[in-house]
Design goal:
It is a single chain. By secondary structure, this protein is an alpha/beta fold. Helix content is 43%, strand content 15%. An eight-stranded parallel barrel has the order 1-2-3-4-5-6-7-8, surrounded by four helices. Helix 1 runs parallel beside helix 12. The structure holds 2-phosphoglycolic acid. 2-phosphoglycolic acid binds next to strand 8.
């Protein structure tokens, strides 16, 4: 049985009080059998970790060097020291707005795993690639270039999140058929590289306008093990409803 995961990517949202109250409410209504993770803005991490809640607290970003003259950046060691357990790597907003390449993401993956932090690795195609019908090879290349240097032992600390860019924050969700087809294709690439036992153990999340209305249909697909949620993760009741949508 693969780990069921519902993760909230808060992006650059919420005040400190809202952040505290959201974690407290999620924790109070903890959904058994589902790993719930939130990715708040950096400045709230310490405060949220000190709540000792039932929710895993992850970081949206970090710089893959241990320390030094990198103004404005935060290292994975610093995150590890305060108790962060997970990081996002490869989110499409980091790829596009901050020009993070597959090669750079590979460095981030290595830095996180070396520090003992789990990685939620995001992949997904833009609309024009979907329209060209080359989305499966596009995503497969993202995985190959940033993840396929890992050993099968290291792969155990990776969760994959498939997020079609055209579905992020747009209200357009992939249909359950589209999601399942891509998730199956991702698992096939993992099987070809690492064998069925390793590939079958990896959780693959869907992200992109996932909400309480569509989560159940998406999570019912064989290869969809949960969700990476943006907008709907900012409201405790919606995040809870999605977490119970299996
Ligand atoms: P969304 O964002 O749920 O608001 O579409 C998902 C994400 O960016 O991870």
């Amino acid at each position: 049985m693969r780990e069921k995961i519902v993760a909230g990517n808060w992006k650059m949202n919420l005040s400190e009080n809202e952040a505290i109250s959201l974690v407290q409410t999620i924790s109070l209504n903890k959904v058994e059998g589902v790993t719930q993770i939130v990715f708040p803005p950096f400045i709230y991490l310490t405060t949220l970790l000190k709540l000792n809640s039932q929710v895993f607290i992850g970081a949206q970003n970090f710089y893959p060097k241990d320390k030094g003259a990198f103004t404005g950046e935060v290292s994975i060691t610093q995150l590890k020291n305060i108790g962060v357990t997970h990081v996002l790597v490869g989110h499409s907003e980091r790829r596009t707005l901050f020009s993070e390449s597959n090669e750079f993401l590979k460095e981030k993956v290595d830095a996180a795993l070396n520090a003992g932090i789990k990685v939620v690795f995001c992949c997904g195609e833009p609309l024009e690639i979907r329209q060209e019908n080359t989305h499966e090879s596009f995503v497969s290349k993202q995985l190959e270039e940033s993840l396929f240097h890992l050993t099968s032992e290291q792969l155990k600390d990776i969760v994959i999140a498939y997020e079609p860019i055209w579905a992020i924050g747009t209200g357009l969700t992939a249909s359950s058929e589209q999601a399942e087809a891509m998730h199956a294709s991702i698992r096939k690439s993992l099987t070809n590289k690492y064998g069925a036992v390793s590939a079958d153990a990896i959780s693959i999340l869907y992200g992109g306008s996932c909400n309480p209305t569509n989560a159940h249909e998406l999570f019912s697909c064989n290869n969809v093990d949960g969700g990476l949620i943006g907008g709907a993760s900012l409201k405790a009741d919606e995040f809870h409803a999605i977490s119970t949508a299996y």
